[in-house]
Design goal:
Length: 220
């Protein structure tokens, strides 16, 4: 008797979809959002502490401490800006993305002023070219306020993270009038406290609920 061997290929399963799409990778990992939130909180606390201790109108060692702790705050804002850009927090249009890039330039020049003013000799600190860089400090904060408004309107971030950037980025709108009306002593306390309520809390929110930076439809 001859033995005949035959093989039959396995049949395809029909109880699962054939072309199920692979889940999309998030534009930024939740752990990275947490780290950037902690960086923002830490930099903000450092600058607020300096303001509590020394104020903002001073010279010598105290002024250098203020400049360099302000730089840590600005680096924290860069971390925030990175999350906003990666998640397209201000919207999906080209103009919304350009807005964040322009702010990065303004913030970069403002940060350069903080660094140089904090380390250069006192004889250079009042030079005109350095004073020009100083202009980008308020411009960068104004840019962050505009971003806060656009982020709230776009509604891509959720929960408290949709609205808290606007709270944080109202710092100049609250602090500058206080300095003008009530003087430096009151302004320092209002400014430092507003930093903790606004930016430091925003950093904590990013670390606590990083999934809020994604619309629900984009969470797999």
């Amino acid at each position: 008797m001859d033995a005949h061997l035959s093989t039959t290929p396995a049949r395809a399963r029909t109880d699962v979809p054939a072309d199920r799409p692979a889940p999309a990778e998030p534009p930024i990992a939740l752990a990275a959002v947490r780290r950037r939130g902690l960086a923002l909180a830490a930099g903000t606390v450092a600058w607020a502490t300096s303001i509590y201790l020394y104020g903002t109108v001073n010279d010598g060692f105290e002024a250098r401490v203020g400049d360099l702790t302000a730089l840590t705050f600005q680096l924290g804002v860069f971390a925030l800006l990175t999350v906003q850009f990666r998640t397209m927090a201000t919207g999906l249009t080209r103009a919304s993305r350009i807005m964040l890039k322009v702010e990065a330039v303004l913030l970069g020049l403002a940060s350069l002023w903080s660094l140089l003013h904090g380390v250069l000799p006192e004889s250079v600190q009042d030079d005109v070219w350095l004073a020009v860089l100083d202009v980008f400090w308020p411009l960068s904060m104004l840019g962050m306020f505009v971003i806060g408004v656009k982020l709230a309107v776009a509604g891509r971030w959720r929960g408290l993270l949709r609205w808290w950037p606007l709270v944080a980025e109202s710092w100049a709108a609250v602090t500058v009038p206080t300095f003008a009306v009530a003087g430096e002593e009151a302004g320092r306390w209002v400014g430092a406290t507003h930093l903790l309520i606004g930016y430091a809390t925003l950093g904590v929110l990013l670390a606590w609920r990083p999934e809020w930076v994604f619309p629900e439809a984009e969470i797999c």
